[in-house]
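hey m, so remember when u said the tokens were messed up on ur end? i reran from scratch. heres the input so u can diff it against urs
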Amino acid sequence: MIEIALRHRFGRNGFALDADFTAPEAGVTALFGPSGCGKSTVLAAVAGLLRPQEGRVVVGGDVLLDTARRVFVAPERRRCGVVFQDARLFPHLSVETNLRYGLRRAPRDAAGPTFEEVVDLLGIGHLLARRPAGLSGGERQRVALGRALLARPRLLLMDEPLAALDAARRAEVLPFLARLRDAARLPILYVTHALDEVDALADHLILLESGRVTAAGPVEEIAARTDVPLLAGRRDAGVLISCTVLSVAEGLAALSFEGGVLVTTARPGPPGTRLRVRLRARDVAVAVEEPRGLSTQNILPVTLTSIAEGSEPGEVFLRLAAGPTTLLARVTRDSVARLSLHPGMPLWALVKAVTLDHRVTGAVAGDNSSPTTAVPTARTRETQPWPG
């Protein structure tokens, strides 16, 4: 378990951080929130780049910081690999030499991936002879990731590594980050204010606002909460559903999940590919009778379990159970009254066209390779991808 408790104020009337949370020692823990909420400050304190006024940081049972006991492990001894927004590569060195610099910093007795394994994982073999100036932004970030990995850290800290990239370069790097998560098996603290990055990578989610933790837990659990304004107030509020590609035929793919099947015209990968889909609450409608004669293919039998306040006047969230899976629908209060909706009522959920915002690659059933989990977004064709 990773334990983090930090209290720090910048100046007498400056920004104050008061954050206390735990994170698993496996997978990606995303620190999500608006700019200026304290995400990067937390990362700096964990890395030892900031000495907080009060705090405690424990990783794998080792105390890296405990102000009460006057413990402060030097940054170079914490074995934290840090990847920043800008790659911070040595401009006068080749890609290979930049990577081997990370390897030279690795403790002699530390287990970790070899140079060849990292190069293969990140797909940068063809870049080894180049210098950073000859790389795209996405390529530089992949090299920075490789250098951090080759230092064989115990904890990987990523401070908005995609924030400086345009949409095309972000889409290029995201699959490699997913591969890194699955293959490296390191705990990763990932700072971002982009919800699509959370969906694509995170296993655990920490929500931060104004220097404080407002919610923490498994990402699929937190995504479905309607009582957290930071998420529920967004127009792309909804749920994350783990799916497996069931079949691909005649231009349609069937995605199986616990509770039903979704159909999409997108190309999520071959049968057996595992992925997560975000179903936005505004893209889900309900009917009190089984709809017939519609072009919509994604019609699921559900049970209305609760009605919660919406983020806008006149709106509510319907929490729907499709077997063990929760869906959310954003509807008007008028609809609730007209349809006499109440908890326990059987309904039909109509999910608009499922399209994918990110290219998906993954493992086919029976394939022994480590799968890449990419995360698409469920959205209507008329809407635009989420803002970064």
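this time it looks ok to me. Residues 357-388 have pLDDT under 50 and may be disordered. if urs says something different then somethings off w ur setup not the seq
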